[in-house]
Structures are given as C-alpha cells and as structure tokens.
Design brief:
Blueprint: E1 3-6, E2 9-12, H1 15-25, E3 32-36, H2 43-54, E4 62-68, H3 77-84, E5 85-88, E6 99-107, E7 110-117, E8 123-126, H4 127-134, H5 140-153, E9 157-163, H6 182-196, E10 201-206, H7 209-216, H8 219-222, E11 225-229, H9 235-244, H10 249-259, H11 263-275, H12 281-303, H13 306-322, E12 325-326, H14 332-343, E13 347-350, E14 355-358, H15 361-375
Length: 376
C-alpha cells in the first residue's frame, strides 16, 4: 500500500485507479467516462491529485480544464457561461500577459480572440464574443469546440474534467423558447467531443448515484459512455493502513465492522484518536453509529408520507438481510424514497448492477440501531 502526503494530508493507495485514468488518456477518446462512487470515497481528492501531481507535469501533451460545479453558484445559463469564460475588458487586459496561448476566432461576422490560462478554468475571450453568447446570438458550445480544435492543432490533447455535473440539473438554456435543459444540451456537446470527433477526453464525476442511474438507463447516453465505480477501500488496504497506525488485529476488525473502507471515516477516527484524551475505540464507534441512527430518524421527517416511511424501513431491512435491494425504475414509490435518502447520503445505487446498498458501513450500523429502536 502506497501512502503519500498531498495537500498536507494523507493520500492512500489508488494505484489501480491512477493507472486506469492515465492509460485511458493516452488512447483516442471514444466516449465519456463517468466516475461515480459512495459519498466520501475520495473521488474529488483523487481527480485533483491526478490533475495537480500527474497531468501538470505533462503540459506539452495535455491541456486540462477542470471544473467542480459545486464550487460555483450555478443558478442560470449566464452563471454557467461565466464559469467557462470571462470577457476581456480594459481593466483585466494586464491579466492576459499570464495566458499561455492566444487564438483568433471567427464566427460569421463576429471576430475576436481567446486566451488560455496555464492553470485555472476560464478562457479569456473578446468582449464582443462574450456579449454575443450572453444574448444567445453565439452558441457557447460552438466557441468551446473551436477553442479545443485550436488547442488540438498545437499538438496537445484537450482533457475536460467536470465534477458534480448534477448541479446543472433543472437549468434552462438562456432565452430558449423551446425550454431546452442546459444539462441535456451539455451532454450532447460532450458526446460530439468524444464519440463523433474524438477531439477531447471527457471525464465526468458525480456523488449522486441516482443521477448516474438515470444516465445509465438513458439509452442514448449509455451507448456513448463508460462507467467507473470509485469505491471504498477493501479490507486488505484498511488492515495494512491501521497496522501502520498501531492498531491490533482485533481493533482493525472492529473498525472494519463499523467503518468499512470509507477513507473519510478512517481519517476522522485517526484524528479523534490523536486529539481526544481518554479515547476509547468501542465508545467512539458506537457514538458514530448513533449519529447515523439520528440522521435516519431526521430523514423520516423529510419523507413526510407514511407510505414512503414504511417503504424506506422495509428497504433498509432488505439491504441488511440480503446485502442489497434491487433498483426498479418503474416503481414510483421507490424512486420517490431514493430521491430523498440518496440526497441525504444514506443509500447508494450501483448503476451497472442496480443494487441498492448503504452509502457506508457506519450508515448500515446506524440503520441497525434505528430498526432495533422502532421494534421496541
């Protein structure tokens, strides 16, 4: 198991995932890669490590544009536009000196230029082109497409990495009388960059397994996409990690029973052990399980209808007894329940198998406590 320090914190053993991503980028782009996994499995930390520690050393080979939409207030099309572009005005022209490349752009009667940052997100673009996109007189995706073609002509492979893309749901295209959804049009554009033109590599990350379930069952997108499950660690990784931290085998088995392979929960455990006086492992783990029991109890209020609450209880029982329940997209009641409990990070859906499981092992322990409580 490899342990390194990244951003002043511990980064654990993702060699297989790293190899998969880097080898994929060396091949021709054929489809969109969706990376999904349980909450707190480390997806964002991993992809930012790849961008900062691996791809940044290959700038002569790749041009990387990474956006995490959770870090922006995307409330309409204009705010989406401002994520990818900022207009060149008099006051920010000195900033252009920091740009690595400048390209001329021509769209019918519109002429301008775009400049690329060596690091960061926004393309600096001529004010007239930016305003045309704001008015919907110029297609933003057409502009990005032309920019990527310019980049490809320099010998570099464009890599677009889009994190938490589900934040774009329910936003309409600007001034569009057909009421087209931005996310739908965005995915059409991403398909054109991969399957149709092989112009860029596209990596999409999401922490919403229900969103991935929708994508997976969308025949048009499923045929143009690959799905990669970024899961929690297995027992062997956790055992080696905790042995290095001085835990006995009995303690490791107890941690595995309660926390499983969730790296976030393991790191919290180690932090609490190091800072809390009179730390006692069993008490700490029971307290964490009780917190999850409380979260489930509060979620019952959000389900708001007795029919949904009863279904959720039976769903938890099935998962505990069988290890999983099966997704049925035609079951309206199940979908209503999953919309709530997946958003609360209680349950998780494996898209390829349709298995519904707990988002983490500690959540399962909390569910066991909750079900025992309501029996009384």
């Amino acid at each position: 198991m490899r342990k390194i320090i990244y951003r002043d914190g511990l980064f654990i053993d993702r060699d297989d995932e790293e190899k998969f991503i880097l080898e994929r980028l060396e091949k021709r782009s054929e489809n969109i890669l969706f990376i999904y996994g349980p909450k707190s499995s480390g997806k964002t930390n991993f992809i930012e490590y790849i961008v900062e520690e691996k791809l940044s050393k290959k700038r002569d080979r790749f041009y990387v544009n990474y956006i995490n939409f959770r870090r922006y207030a995307i409330v309409n099309y204009s705010s989406f536009l401002n994520v990818y572009f900022f207009p060149i005005r008099e006051e920010n022209k000195p900033f252009l000196a920091k740009m690595s490349d400048k390209f001329k752009l021509v769209f019918d009667s519109l002429r301008g230029e775009v400049s690329l940052p060596e690091e960061g997100v926004n393309f600096a673009i001529s004010l007239n082109l930016f305003e045309a996109m704001e008015r919907n007189d110029l297609d933003q995706f057409k502009v990005i497409f032309e920019v990527l073609k310019k980049i490809k002509s320099t010998g570099r492979v464009p890599v677009l990495i889009i994190d938490e893309v589900q934040e774009l749901k329910d936003i309409y295209m600007n001034g569009d009388i057909k009421k087209r959804y931005l996310l739908t049009e965005f995915f059409k554009f991403l398909v054109s960059l991969t399957k149709e033109t092989h112009l860029a590599h596209i990596i999409v990350l999401t922490s919403s397994s229900l969103f991935i379930d929708e994508i997976y069952n969308n025949s048009n997108l499923a045929q143009t996409s690959e799905f990669f499950l970024f899961d929690h660690f297995n027992y062997e990784v956790i055992r080696e990690w905790l042995e290095d931290e001085g835990f006995s085998l009995e303690e490791i088995d107890l941690v595995w029973e309660y926390l499983g392979g969730c790296p976030f929960n393991i790191l919290n455990l180690l932090s609490n052990r190091d800072i809390l006086p009179n730390f006692e492992l069993k008490s700490y783990l029971h307290r964490e399980a009780m917190l999850m029991r409380g979260k489930i109890d509060f979620t019952m209020v959000d389900l708001d209808k007795e029919e949904r609450q009863d279904y959720f209880i039976e769903l938890m029982k099935t998962i505990i007894e069988n290890g999983f329940a099966l997704r049925n997209s035609k079951n309206k009641l199940q979908t209503e329940v999953l919309n709530v409990v997946i958003d609360k990070d209680i349950l998780f859906v494996r898209a390829e198998t349709g298995e519904i499981i707990f988002n983490s092992q500690i959540m399962k322990k909390g569910a066991e406590l909750y079900l025992n409580q309501i029996k009384r």
